[in-house]
Amino acid sequence: NKDRFRLYGYYTNNIKDDATNIAKGIFYKFVEDVYSFDELCRIIKDDGLHVLIYPEIGMDPLTLKLASLRLAPIQCVSWGHPETSGLETIDYFLSSELMEPDDGERNYTEKLIRLRNLSVYFYPLDNIKIDLRKESMGFKSDEILYLCSQSLFKYLPQYDCVFVRIAQEVKNCKFLFISSSKGSFLTNRFRKRLSTAFEKGGLIADDYVVFLPFLDELNFKKFNKISDVFLDSIGWSGCNTTLEAIECNLPVVTMPGKFMRGRHSYAILKFMGVDDTIAESLEDYIKIAVELGKDREFRDNISKKIELNKDKIYFDIGCVKSLEDFLLKVVKDKRVT
After folding, report:
1. Which DSSP string do the residues of 289-304 spell out, in sequence order?
2. What structural domains does the chain harbor?
């Protein structure tokens, strides 16, 4: 509500794109092209903010430096990087009521704020019309394609056996991973790890595992379209990748973890009311993934359920209202004290 809130934005990168241009139109004041740390701090302080919100802390060194200072009376971080900041200068962690476990408070140095539903106002992705077959992308028509499109560092070695177990049951299948954008070293290390796991299971990894090149938006969409199942990474769940899979009505297999970072896909599926593919254990995860691979009717039913319910996650004004209510309350409380 721009009648009640005045938004200031501080852009710390030097890469400009369409999102940068959109942001300029949203904020009352948009600061960019300031590369002096001291100057940026002075600008933020002089703006006299009531509340300063960091979308994430931990992924960008400059953001971490800024967050280590008290630049506003009330300072918050959200879950762009889904971990506590550990900083005394950050007062609140803005999270999602659906993503947090019951004891989520114990995982943060900040005070945990559970915003409504997913806590983020999502809207449908650009609806690029794609009509293609598996054969056009180099696969056989009867192969079951499991899309594993998270960053490779999210796949933990203790869960490598999951892919082996699924392959042993489904047999005629492929697991599609995306090569690291940081170079070949990480991809090769991960490839070697999977080779060892498949060998222990009496299988050859190259018969089942495919490493795609790092994909642009169009090609990423294509592989979502031709895949049969999306396998969420265990322990550190997907969010944007899960939303893109859901946009293509792709069944999502997930197992919620003990921390919020492992519960994004779980929350999205819960919000839609599509909980058939939420696993309660590792064995359950494998069982669901195998059933989706072997049972076409089950797979189609889940896809139809997603198609009918995915609109629930879009344009959720409730989470925006809960953020507004939180901001008004903390500013009022700060003034009282």
Report:
1. HHHHHH-HHHHHHHHH
2. 8-121+316-336 (3.40.50.11380), 134-313 (3.40.50.2000)
